[in-house]
Design a protein that fits this description.
alpha+beta; OB fold (Dihydrolipoamide Acetyltransferase, E2P)
């Protein structure tokens, strides 16, 4: 598809680009986080989705709810189990992915893109330094599988 003057439109104007896992930070509980300014986008990892298999329900917080690092902000339910979702940062829920309320299985189709869970407004100075890099997270997964 070409725009006027032969310039292709930016991909991010057509759909939500998936996040590159190399740029994300990871929690031991299998959430990922990406900090952009004062907004932290949170999702669950591909590994977590694969372990859960068929996701049937996601309980989300309300916009305006407060999150606390390491504490549950919701639940994800599959045919196999119900698991808590843990906040990687303190803050206030600025947005939830409403598409997942209607189609929770879509988290499995695109966990690093359209399957994001919440966006949390954080305090100035917040970092994700306490979370793992992709390399460290992959080592954790490998150790859990043995």
């Amino acid at each position: 598809m070409k725009a006027a003057h032969g310039i292709a439109p930016r991909a991010d104007t057509l759909w939500e680009n998936p996040m590159d896992p190399k740029t994300l930070r990871f929690a031991k509980s299998h959430e990922w986080a990406k900090l952009d300014g004062d907004i932290c986008t949170v999702g669950i990892t591909k590994f977590a989705v694969e372990q859960l298999t068929d996701v049937v329900y996601i309980e989300m917080p309300d916009v305006g709810d407060h999150t606390f690092a390491g504490e549950s902000f919701g639940e994800i339910e599959s045919v196999k189990a119900v698991s808590d979702l843990y906040a990687p940062v303190n803050g206030e829920v600025a947005e939830i992915n409403e598409q997942l309320l209607d189609d929770p299985a879509s988290v499995a189709k695109d966990p690093y893109g359209k399957g994001w869970l919440v966006k949390i407004k954080v305090e100035p100075g917040t970092t994700l330094d306490h979370m793992m890099t992709l390399e460290k997270y992959e080592k954790q997964i490998a150790s859990e599988q043995h």
